[in-house]
């Protein structure tokens, strides 16, 4: 997260025209980007393709953009001498793992529903020739605090237009990265499917499939695709779930499922996912393995902001301004939390 924190921050913004209408603004410092301008151009180019109105920056209006309900939208971009401002849809529901820990009951069926939404969004991206390349739980956010809120894919920092289906930059996050990336082979859309396999695994047991303090050992495990469904954690999990994961975390790229194949698997599209409550075991492991105090603070700060928004809406005049001022401070706190990095 250092690179992200080093040249960008996220702030809460309110519409001048429609008070109470809130957005997230990603502010990117051009000076800090020395040598990385291309990746910024790229991120904006990708985001624009997934925005409601394709921007006319290229001199032509390309009509409606390629929107998907599970992909965070870019609404507008602004630029001044030193900074680029990306106005994005605000998602306020918090991070995936936090929500699971807070739930009372949680089943394979719940996990399957989450993964189905991610697969549908990524399948849509893949059809448009875009590979995300950095799918991980931190990039999966709930749209709202509602119990039945949808999940959203955010942060295309590393995503890249797919040229000729082959990309060869090593990037991504160690625990989620596909073997072909580590092997420095050319790679494509299949890397996202591998990452979704890793996330699915974690959603069913609360700990990662590959883990080692030592990067070299971790990489060796991933390259061989060595992971277990250890007892007792996996004893209650259906065979269908295990089969699904094995088809996604498959070292052989030609045999690995595509998003479409994964969507057709009975664990996603049929009734194979169990309704047994696995909340106790999974949440205990999630707390142990993904205790990220910074994210907890950011999540708390977001809750504070929501309370302030309610206060602001229910009062008016000077009270509103005070609340707005305070929520701005909290937004700063969120920025520093989120950009302070979130390593395990």
TrEMBL record:
The organism's place on the tree of life at top rank: Eukaryota
Record GO terms (molecular function): ATP binding; protein serine/threonine kinase activity
Protein kinase domain sequence ranges: 1-268
Keyword annotations from UniProtKB, A to Z: ATP-binding, Kinase, Nucleotide-binding, Serine/threonine-protein kinase, Transferase
UniProt keyword Transcription regulation present: no
Listed SMART domains: S_TKc
InterPro entries linked: Kinase-like_dom_sf (IPR011009), Prot_kinase_dom (IPR000719), Ser/Thr_kinase_AS (IPR008271)
CDD domains xrefs: STKc_CaMKI (cd14083)
Keyword ATP-binding belongs to the record: yes
Protein name (database record): Protein kinase domain-containing protein
